[in-house]
Each structure stands twice: as structure tokens, then as C-alpha cells.
Write a structure and sequence with these properties.
Layout lengths: L2 H11 L3 H7 L7 E5 L5 E8 L6 E7 L10 E7 L5 E7 L5 E8 L5 E7 L10 E7 L5 E7 L4 E10 L5 E9 L5 E8 L5 E7 L6 E8 L5 E11 L2 E11 L5 E7 L5 E8 L5 E7 L9 E7 L5 E7 L5 E8 L5 E8 L15 E8 L5 E7 L5 E8 L5 E8 L3 E8 L8
Antiparallel strand pairs: 1-28, 2-3, 3-4, 4-5, 6-7, 7-8, 8-9, 10-11, 11-12, 12-13, 14-15, 15-16, 16-17, 18-19, 19-20, 20-21, 22-23, 23-24, 24-25, 26-27, 27-28
Length: 411
């Protein structure tokens, strides 16, 4: 019996289904948690708390607003057994979406995304950032953006001096062309500088910013590149100094198209990038693509993983012992005589562990009927991994799964 089916039967037979979801005896090395309200709830990012006391996930929810269009930032803290400590929403009467968060020096959180409610007007999203204390109470909020573009933040980090660096994308209303925007603010959210990256006639988008051991920044994203006269998206890696000025850039990919979603610095000073590739997919549509570079951006190795359908890496991290863990989804494809997909499983969440040379040590899929995806992954103080994303059944709910360092999954 599929684990998700077993979980559903447990819920239907229980007089208190929330007790089953939040207090079932799935703890210790691993747990599997699905939680949410009456409508749509999904995680986009996760951090493991430095104190070792649990995790915090950031995403969006319209389960608790006044209407189906009232989508808000949704931030949830869970303990080490996966039980919800607090679950809070932030936003106005239109749409807010949280894409990333970081734990701050004072034990609170910085959450970034986009807002219609506080932006330039209906359907005119601007970057929205909110600072929370350790209990999830809002301390302040800021809007960044221009009136002639749709602006969405995708990544945030805090620097040693307390300032924040926010990666965002700005899409011009008149042309539909997107550029990368990097924002630095002080600890109170006041703007220090803003940098933009892009070409006049092409589109670019950024997905993550990190600090480097040398004190600068690295941005990963995707860029339109011309191959044999045709434009295709490729991985894009940009090295910046500490003031946000570009030092060098590199692209990786082929003529069919790639998208990069995550980056981490490796112990040798190089970088590992992950996303998907059409150009180098082994079979089917697009496959998970992981690229390792040296400190100057020269490709060292690459690896692809996938099924006969669509597969994508959405996050990665370098573990304390130098390995690489990748999270995302794979599509379950069961063809009939006409090569039509008959699977009812949809996407399954996917996690794999690689060594520093790209060799697969283990891989796991987590799923059931409907879609499951992992959008974020974190490593806790014990070296175990926690993924966050969504589970799609009758409603879409948060999915948080703790996986042991050996790849054991408790479902």
C-alpha cells in the first residue's frame, strides 16, 4: 500500500485528523508531515535553526484569508519531531508570495517575496520583505520596486555586519523583458545600494545569491544565449565583489535550454549549480542537471538524472562533510499503448546525495497520488536533511519530510 494512501486512511478513520497529521509517532531519525488549511498551502524555502530546535518554512497560503484570491505569506515553525509550534500569515487583501527566508543574527527571520497589496497597484507586484522576531511577530516591512515593472524577490542573505542582500527579478511591463536586481539594505531595511544585471535585448532571471569565502557574492540564474542564431536559456553564474559589481560571468548549456535554480560553494572554493536541462537530457523531456565548477567558473564535472518525463532540481546544499544533496521532483510516467501517461502519481518529491565528484550515493522519491515537490532543503545539527514543498491531494498542503543522513524516509 502506498504510504500516502495509508496516511489518508488514517485521517479518514480518525476523529481528530489534525492529531494524526501533527502528533503521529513519526520522529527520531525521520518524519513525514502534511499540514495546511482548507485551500492552498505550500512551502517555498526552509531553514534549520542554528539552535537545533527545529525548522522554519516560508511559502504561501490562501486558506485563512477572506477569499480565494487572498494569498498571503505563510511562515511556519516546526520542532524536531515535525510538530507545528506556530503558523502565521502576513499580507493584505490581494496576493503575497514568500519565496525565501534566512535566520537573522538576533534569532528572528527575514522573509522575501512579492506583494500585490502593497505594490504599485493591482497585478503590479513589488518586492516585499518582512522582518520577524523569533516568535514570528512582524517587526517591520519594506517595499522595493519600480512602477513600470513586476518585481519579485527570490533569495535573501544576512551579512556579518547585519545588513541584508536580496536577489530579485524585474520584468518590464512594456517589453516583457526581465533583468536581475540585487538590493542591499541595512538592518532596518533602508536601501544602501541597488545593482541591475542584464542585456538590452535579452531576458535574464536570478534564483539565488550566496556569499563567498572571499567576501563577495555569487548569483545563479538563467540567461538567454544565442546558439546557431536561436536564443535559448542557459545556466548563468555571476561573480561579484563585496559592493555588488560584476567581476566575471559564465554560462553553461546547449541549444535546447536549461534553467538553474540553486547554488552552493564547495569546500575547495568552487561552486555547484543545479536545475534542469533539455539539451543534455538522457531521455524524455528535461532532466535534473548538476554542474560543478572551480573557483573561476570553469566546469569540472556535470551529471544528469531523470526519468522519461520532466525532472527538476529546485534546491541543493553542500553538507558539513563536503557532500552535495539535491532536492526537487521527478515525474512518474507509466505509458499506455499510445504512449500516454496513465500514472496517477504525478510528480514525486526527489532527494539525492552525491559525493564531491558527482557520484550518486543514494536517491529517494517521496510521493503518492497527486503531486509532491521539494522546493527547499536544509541540514540540521545532526546531519539529517529536511525538505519542504507541497503535497497535492484534495487540497494542496505543506509537505515537510525529515530524511536521515543515510537516506531513510519515515512515511
Amino acid at each position: 500500500m502506498k504510504p500516502i494512501v495509508l496516511l489518508t486512511l488514517m485521517l479518514l478513520s480518525s476523529p481528530n485528523p489534525w492529531h494524526v497529521l501533527l502528533n503521529s509517532p513519526q520522529h527520531l531519525a525521520a518524519f513525514y508531515k502534511v499540514f495546511g488549511g482548507k485551500n492552498y498551502d505550500a512551502s517555498a524555502d526552509i531553514v534549520a535553526l542554528k539552535s537545533g530546535s527545529g525548522v522554519v518554512v516560508a511559502g504561501r497560503s490562501n486558506s485563512y484569508g477572506v477569499g480565494s484570491m487572498d494569498m498571503n505569506f505563510n511562515i511556519v515553525k516546526l520542532d524536531n519531531n515535525g510538530s507545528v509550534i506556530w503558523d502565521k500569515n502576513y499580507g493584505g487583501q490581494e496576493t503575497e508570495e514568500a519565496f525565501a527566508l534566512c535566520e537573522t543574527r538576533d534569532g528572528g527571520f527575514m522573509v522575501v517575496g512579492s506583494s500585490d497589496s502593497y505594490g504599485g497597484g493591482p497585478d503590479m507586484k513589488d518586492v516585499w520583505v518582512i522582518k520577524l522576531d523569533k516568535n514570528g511577530d512582524r517587526q517591520w516591512a519594506k517595499i522595493f520596486g519600480d512602477d513600470d515593472s513586476i518585481d519579485e524577490a527570490r533569495s535573501v542573505i544576512q551579512l556579518e555586519d547585519g545588513s541584508f542582500v536580496i536577489l530579485a527579478n524585474a520584468t518590464k511591463i512594456t517589453t516583457g523583458k526581465s533583468d536581475i536586481m540585487l538590493i542591499k539594505s541595512n538592518e532596518k531595511g533602508d536601501l544602501i545600494w541597488k545593482r541591475e544585471f542584464g542585456l538590452p535585448n535579452n531576458s535574464e532571471m536570478g534564483t539565488q545569491v550566496i556569499t563567498t569565502k572571499e567576501g563577495g557574492f555569487m548569483i545563479v540564474g538563467s540567461k538567454e544565449v544565442r546558439h546557431q542564431g536561436k536564443l535559448a536559456w542557459n545556466f548563468w553564474l555571476i561573480a561579484l565583489d563585496k559592493e555588488g559589481f560584476k567581476i566575471w560571468e559564465q554560462t553553461y548549456g546547449g541549444k535546447m535550454g536549461e534553467q538553474a535554480n540553486a547554488i552552493a560553494q564547495t569546500q575547495d572554493g568552487g561552486f555547484v549549480l543545479a536545475g534542469y536541462t533539455y539539451s543534455f537530457a538522457k531521455e524524455g523531456s528535461h532532466d535534473i542537471w548538476v554542474v560543478k565548477t572551480d573557483a573561476k567558473g570553469t566546469k569540472v564535472w556535470e551529471t544528469t538524472t531523470g526519468t522519461t518525463s520532466t525532472d527538476e532540481a529546485l534546491d541543493l546544499l553542500v553538507t558539513k562533510d563536503g557532500k552535495i544533496v539535491v532536492a526537487g521532483y521527478v515525474d512518474i510516467f507509466v505509458p499506455d499503448a499510445n504512449n500516454e501517461n496513465t500514472s496517477k502519481e504525478g510528480n514525486n518529491a526527489f532527494v539525492m546525495l552525491l559525493d564531491d565528484q558527482g557520484k550518486t550515493l543514494w536517491r529517494k522519491t517521496i510521493g503518492g497520488n497527486g503531486d509532491q515537490r521539494a522546493y527547499g532543503i536544509a541540514e540540521d545539527v545532526n546531519g539529517d536533511f529536511i525538505i519542504a514543498g507541497y503535497n497535492e491531494g484534495e487540497t494542496t498542503d505543506h509537505l515537510v519530510v525529515k530524511i536521515s543522513k543515510n537516506g531513510d524516509v519515515k512515511q
